[in-house]
Please model this.
Amino acid sequence: MTRILGIDYGKVITGLSITDPLQKFAFGLNAIPTKNLMSFLAMFLANEPIKKIVIGLPKTLNNKNALIEKSIQNFIYEFQKKNPKIRIDRIDERFTSKMAFYTMIELGLKRKKRRQKGILNKISATIILQSYLIKREKKINL
Model:
């Protein structure tokens, strides 16, 4: 079974996560500058068989698309041109950054470490992907 890649797309830093081969658990993979995302993914996909990517869908509290959604749509368009066989799914990512921040506190990370945006993005990407896996599992069991 191939793995699923999770993406928490950001203006500056993008967090990445990946599943185990059985697609049961999500793990933090990396946080990279968004400007390097396409080249990173090209190298990564050359070595890792991925058939699906889950990208967070940023919504406001009143259920409207967040401003960054236009940038995400541009990224998806460019990515799909280069990788048409890889399926992209979206999942609501509301509150993932807040959840990731509280996770860092629960893990006992010092304030200086919590300020590192890359860690927050990587944890957010993991939460996005794990949420997707849980939602998918619930659909299968219905």
